[in-house]
Write a structure and sequence with these properties.
Elements lengths: L9 H4 L18 E6 L2 E6 L5 E5 L7 H14 L3 E5 L3 H16 L6 E5 L3 H7 L1 H6 L2 E4 L8 H17 L2 E7 L5 H12 L7 H22 L7 E6 L3 H14 L3 E4 L5 E2 H17 L5 E2 L3 E2 L8 H12 L8 E4 L10 H23 L7 E5 L5 H7 L2 E4 L9 E5 L2 E6 L4 H23 L1
Parallel strand pairs: 3-4, 3-11, 4-5, 5-6, 6-7, 7-8, 8-9, 9-11, 10-12, 13-14, 14-15
Antiparallel strand pairs: 1-2, 15-16, 16-17
Length: about 425
């Protein structure tokens, strides 16, 4: 017979030892790199906030199109933007892209993505090497045999010469095959061989860390080294980065490679990155979404920002709480209003970040009926509870936890919109005036 659960009496239930600890991301402990362009410094690692990175999908040779997309990504919130540098023509275009961005007032640092011929491009195109703020080097694509160390060394020497940060980015789709073959052979000689996936994990980490060690031997400042070991499986990424964080103190870049399209890519990236970030693992992130046809490239930035804001690691935009709707809600009015408010807040943030400091922490509630409407609205800075089925045709508005007024009639949406704008001006505009 199973033991019956012990139910504590009220005195035991109120014991302070039963207090529930508030969940929060663990502190990160890593070296800190400084990625620079002009007067702009983006710190990565150490006590810096987790940074958001993105990548263009334009032909780098097209200077104007690439500069426009970089601007869109930067305005959306990307703090570093990576561009492909794969040909001499692309290398020649990089300084002109940088010039275009500088003329537009976009000081986001550029990261050069190099594969196969990066050693030659960095050596033969010094203007490109200087215009970039960071180099991404894939150890699996720098050469084979005796060439590998020489070509890797050329890239590191360029980074040292121009004082650039380097990301040593390993990807299991382009893992160093010589290293993997050697580790497979060594594994076969074990009394109890590991399974293939375990060897792959070890090879990813070994490739990154041995490359970092060689870079340091060449004179690279260890603070200027960032590591990544990207895979496309959620549990695989978690396993690899947990091990990687135990074995080094370099700043780590997180990303689920080839995450996919739409909902699949968004959910998979959020699932993997959230687990690691909650454990204090990761200093920069990228959400590698495949855009839907006609979809803006900025969607990957939006998802990355939402991941960090949802975890409480950073605040980028005012948050809008809205119920999903049910049989109690009379129409789609609350859905439309929630979307209008959310779109409006996001659109204004590029200006508001400077004009209204602190507005990114604001909470707005747009609720559809009386069940949770008043309560959620009270918890928000400003909230509205719209009438549901059978409720009186009135919408109470709560400001700073108190019922402030009630809206009625056909213009509830526009009137609440105006109230939100007025609230922002009064609350956050005052801090600007004081400053």
């Amino acid at each position: 017979m199973m033991d019956q659960p012990v139910i504590p009496d009220s005195a035991e239930a109120s014991d302070l030892s039963d207090l529930i600890a508030a969940a929060a991301p663990s502190a990160r402990r890593s070296r800190q790199a400084q990625v620079r362009w002009g007067g702009r410094v983006v710190t990565i690692g150490g006590d810096a906030p987790v940074r958001v990175q993105s990548m263009t999908n334009t032909d780098t040779v097209d200077v104007i199109e690439t500069a426009i997309q970089i601007k869109e990504l930067a305005v959306a919130g990307s703090e570093l933007v990576r561009i492909t540098v794969n040909t001499p023509e692309a290398a020649d275009a990089v300084p002109h892209i940088r010039e275009q961005l500088d003329r537009m007032g976009i000081d986001v640092p550029l990261v050069g993505d190099f594969h196969y011929n990066g050693h030659r491009l960095l050596t033969e195109h010094p203007a490109m090497a200087q215009a970039l703020s960071k180099y991404r080097i894939n150890p699996g694509n720098v050469g084979k045999g005796d060439k590998k160390d020489r070509q890797f060394a050329q890239m590191i020497e360029a980074a040292i010469q121009y004082d650039k940060v380097v990301r040593i980015g390993v990807n299991w789709g382009s893992l160093d095959q010589e290293l993997l073959a050697q580790m497979m052979d060594d594994n076969a000689k074990r009394a109890q061989p590991w399974d293939g996936k375990q060897v792959m994990y070890q090879a990813l980490i070994q490739s990154a860390l041995s490359s970092a060690s060689y870079a340091r031997e060449l004179g690279m400042n260890p603070d200027n080294i960032i590591i990544s070991c990207k895979v496309s499986g959620v549990q695989d990424l978690i396993s690899v980065y947990r091990a990687l964080s135990r074995r080094c103190d370099y700043a780590l870049h997180l990303g689920l490679t080839e995450a996919g399209m739409g909902t699949k890519g968004t959910v998979a990236s959020a699932a993997a990155l959230s687990v690691l970030l909650q454990e204090g693992i990761g200093d920069t992130i990228r959400v590698s979404l495949t855009p839907q046809p006609g979809e803006s490239r900025t969607q990957e930035v939006v998802v990355a920002l939402e991941i960090l804001q949802s975890l409480g690691l950073r605040a980028f935009n005012p948050s809008v709480t809205a119920c999903p709707g049910c049989g109690r809600t009379t129409s789609s009015t609350f859905q439309e209003l929630a979307k209008q408010i959310d779109d409006f807040l996001r659109a204004q943030m590029p200006v508001w970040r400077e004009k209204y400091p602190g507005v990114e922490n604001m909470k707005v509630a747009v609720m559809g009926c009386i069940v949770n409407g008043p309560g959620e609205s009270k918890h928000a800075d400003i909230g509205i509870s719209l009438p549901g089925t059978g409720e009186a045709p009135a919408a109470p508005v709560f400001i700073d936890g108190q019922k402030a007024l009630t809206l009625r009639g056909e213009n509830i949406a526009s009137e609440f919109h105006a109230l939100v704008e007025n609230y922002i001006e009064k609350r956050f505009g005052a801090s600007t005036t004081t400053a």
